[in-house]
Amino acid sequence: MAKIAIIGTGYVGLASAVGFAHLGHDVVGIDIDKSKVEKLTSGKSPIFEKDVEIYLAQSLAKNKIIFSSDYSDMKDCDFVFMCLPTPQNDDGSADINYILDSAKTLTNQLKENATLVIKSTVPVNTWKKVTEILNRTDVSIISNPEFLREGTALEDFFNPDRIVVGGISEEKAHLVADLYKSKDAVIVFTDNTSAEIIKYASNSFLAIKLSFVNEIAAYAESTDANALEVLNAMGLDKRIGKDFLKPGPGWGGMCFPKDVSALKESAREKNVPIPLLDAALESNLKAHARIVSKVKKALGGSLKDKNISVWGLAFKANTDDIRFSPAISVIELLISEGAQIKAFDPVVKQVKELAIEVKSEIIQSVENADAIVVLTEWQEFKLVEPSLIDKLVKQKIVVDARNLLDKEKWINSGFMFIGNGYN
Ligand SMILES: NC(=O)c1ccc[n+]([C@@H]2O[C@H](COP(=O)([O-])OP(=O)(O)OC[C@H]3O[C@@H](n4cnc5c(N)ncnc54)[C@H](O)[C@@H]3O)[C@@H](O)[C@H]2O)c1
After folding, report:
1. Residuewise pLDDT in 10s, the chain (423 residues)
2. CA distance 374 to 340
């Protein structure tokens, strides 16, 4: 079993830390946020993520994991994984200062012959900058981008489609791949720079796919077609694949928007612009706006002083993450048109940046509503009986941006039901 340090115990770092500990490794989770370290040490997860608290408790009980804010606590670790944020700069490029600053600290802390693994999503040649800062010929740098999805982080950690390991040292690359003890994943051994690009290219491709899906949904709505049937049939073509073919209120989250922008900026710097990325970003703004137009149209052309009950704030179901959530973007547009928002989300209980009421019960969000708008695909929303809320709302209108609810049931209760991608 290996001694592993995880630097940064956020969504990726925490899942990786408890995942590796569960596989039997000895893990030290390092985070500069002392309150997070305290919480984790007491067995509480700072994030909402399926099974993380269960695995955390098991690993703590077996003394397989500790958390600290002190980098010197990872001094005897052979493998050090950087799971640090790489947020978006104002110009769209990735801010890699968390990585570079941490590398400065790590220079004097890394054990002799340690392997430093960059798991964060980083622009090309970040590994070279880290190598320069470290200035340690004994330390190997491995680029091992993460592909897990929030909401299914541990499942993805244990059952990845592929594990990408880029590095100069073949021996160290194999050792890193072995840490995952994965029986089924394809292991892709490559160079550092290719590994860095694989992550950006993958996320950008998915974002482009989703933008296209939303445009087909918009187009289908302008005809007699049903985009859901169109997309379903498209997905039966193996070259296209059935995943990521559902219309929605636009894509979001901490990864897609910033990764598309970062790739766009990196490519522009190299004088190889990728206009598809500009198109995907622009299309995504239209996807948010299209949902607002649907609500507006249903309400007779104006949102001024209209009460909107928003169901869902997280950028997707099964996470508490609202970073770059399309729900938030749609809400901002609704507010800018004069609407008042009462929202409900099963796990997100406040949004500091927005002047909205976040209700603790879904039923409270619908009181006096002119329209209900479904923005996150939480499965529990399906359980709401329209017949139980039809007396509470002011107008019986539902705009289901996720095509989640049972349309017939709502129509049978007298609601005007507006889906996404068909009329
Ligand atoms: N969130 C995802 O679904 C996901 C999936 C794949 C890849 N990624 C990539 O992984 C990286 C991490 O993303 P995340 O969502 O886990 O970020 P996050 O913001 O949830 O977590 C980052 C953690 O790093 C800590 N931190 C910041 N500076 C530090 C320092 N100097 N030393 C120690 N800890 C420090 C923060 O306190 C925080 O807990 C990013 O590059 C992201 O693009 C994210």
Report:
1. 999 999 999 999 999 999 999 999 999 999 999 999 999 999 999 999 999 999 999 999 999 999 999 999 999 999 999 999 999 999 999 999 999 999 999 999 999 999 999 999 999 999 999 999 999 999 999 999 999 999 999 999 999 999 999 999 999 999 999 999 988 999 999 999 999 999 999 999 999 999 999 999 999 999 999 999 999 999 999 999 999 999 999 999 999 999 999 999 999 999 999 999 999 999 999 999 999 999 999 999 999 999 999 999 999 999 999 999 999 999 999 999 999 999 999 999 999 989 999 999 999 999 999 999 999 999 999 999 999 999 999 999 999 999 999 999 999 999 999 999 999
2. 15
Could you identify the residue written with the tokens 């470290």?
134
Q: Is the beta carbon of 120 within 6 A of some atom in ligand 1?
A: yes
CA of 195 to the centre of ligand 1 (A): 18
Q: Tell me, in angstroms, the distance from the centre of ligand 1 to residue 356's CA.
A: 28
Distance CA 32, CA 83 (A): 12
Is 192 touching ligand 1 by the criterion CB < 6 Å?
no
Active centre residues (catalytic): 255
Q: How far is the CA of 120 from the centre of ligand 1 (A)?
A: 7
Phi-psi region of 8 (alpha: psi -120 to 50; beta: other; left: phi over 0): left
* Coil, helix or strand at residue 372: strand
CA-closest residue to ligand 1 atom 18: 10
For atom 38 of ligand 1, which residue has the closest CA?
10
How far, in whole angstroms, is CA 298 from its chain's centroid?
31
pTM, entire model: 0.96
Q: Is 115 in the pocket of ligand 1 (CB under 6 A)?
A: no
Q: Does the Cβ of 36 fall within 6 Å of ligand 1?
A: yes
Is the CB of residue 153 less than 8 Å from the CB of residue 52?
yes
**Ligand 1 within 6 A of CB of 166:** no
Distance CA 313, CA 375 (A): 7
For ligand 1, atom 11: residue with the closest CA: 120
Domains and CATH numbers, the chain: 3-190 (3.40.50.720), 205-423 (3.40.50.720)
In terms of Cα–Cα distance, which of 277, 13, 43 is closest to 150?
A: 13
